[in-house]
Amino acid sequence: MIGGYVASVLAAGWITLSLAFASLALAVLIGVAAALAKLSRSRVLRVGATFYTTVVRGIPDLVMMLLVFYSLPALVNQAAQDRGYDLYVEFSPFVAGTVTLGLIFGAYMTETFRGALMNIPKGQVEAAEAYGLGRLRIFWRILLPQMTRLALPGFTNNWLVLAKATALVSLLGLQDVMFRAKGAAEATAKPFTFYLVAAGFYLLVTAVSLLVLSRIARRYEVGVKELAR
What is the pTM assigned to this prediction? Predict the structure, then answer.
């Protein structure tokens, strides 16, 4: 009986991982865009990106998730009804969780990527512009590879926190590891056993992530010479 519940909890791991990777992809896209906006010459873009990171990082993750899942659809539906539209919007727990975590960790990725970009010598960009390279090519060929290497430590930390933060989405009803662990704990009156299984799953994800990302970091460091102090 307990073995069946354990299998059910672990089987939900693919839902948790799907949520984590989808949120990460969104967070990276937002982070890169907002980091470039913060470093742009446009005051409007800089102010907008700063407002986004300040507001998002200042609101608790759970509050943000509840706002996206409950309040945002209600607001959209009410606005549509006031204008005479027959519209009903409802987010699934997976979509709400992905959007929320993407927005939250996009703000943290923004600062990670911005710091990495600021550590790239400006002379490289100026030299590329002197050779007539366009902005997109400069970013893709010069800035992105170096930004990736410099941002890896901060990226790793953000990813580990994001992976663990997926547990919050269980409160919205998503059938993930934490949701099934809670159900199994209530059904068998053995909360320690099943919450320990959930903890072991997240610990395994963390350990594998650290192993993979550390190898990627070592690969990026090949050929990079340390400056003499």
Answer: 0.90
